[in-house]
Design a protein that fits this description.
Length: 186
């Protein structure tokens, strides 16, 4: 598994080297900060993004500034998995920097068809609530939750599909560091 598939267990990885920098960015979610990594290279790369929103973009810009970089410098984004706290700002970063987006096939489907995939998720959870015999009207609760969460996601085109066994040429980082970083965070 190069890039995590939806539903894979998460590991709290904190890889940092001279060229890989952890940028902890706030989220509106109970998980707290998201680990966004900057890989300083000939092609400056982010591994994951914060959620969509000005407050998170400003925090990302400040963190990048601390590393002598800017959002406009980013030329590649590797999305480990399509949770809002790992990909929500991708479209805005692409708009500002013309970065490429790399993701797994499952991640790409979600990123490129956000509204459809998000609606399928809503229907999936509605069915779980129905089968479980949830009291009251779970639809009202889920609609409120999904309308709130939808604001933090985005649709973005994926430039490169990553498959099992793919190798990424990132000269500033060893393949072992990148493999650990991508597999452990995704």
């Amino acid at each position: 598994m190069l890039m995590g598939e939806i539903g894979q267990p998460m590991v709290n990885a904190t890889v940092e080297t001279d060229h890989i920098h952890l940028l902890g960015i706030s989220t509106p979610f109970p998980v707290g900060k998201v680990n966004v990594y900057l890989i300083e290279d000939a092609i400056p790369t982010l591994v994951d993004t914060p959620p969509k929103g000005a407050v998170y973009m400003n925090e990302l810009q400040a963190a990048l500034n601390g590393k002598g970089c800017s959002i406009k410098d980013i030329k590649r984004i590797i999305i480990t998995h399509p949770h809002f706290d790992h990909c929500g700002a991708a479209a805005e970063i692409v708009r500002l920097s013309e970065a490429e987006v790399w993701a797994s096939r499952g991640g790409a489907r979600y990123l490129e068809h956000f509204d459809d995939e998000f609606s399928k998720e809503f229907q999936y959870y509605m069915e779980i609530f129905r089968q479980a015999g949830a009291p009251g009207n779970p639809r009202t609760y889920l609609e409120h939750l999904y309308n709130w969460a939808r604001a933090y996601g985005c649709t973005v085109p994926v430039s490169r599909l990553l498959e099992d066994g793919d190798e990424m040429n990132l000269p500033a980082a060893s393949s072992r560091e990148v493999h650990y970083l991508v597999v452990c965070t995704g």
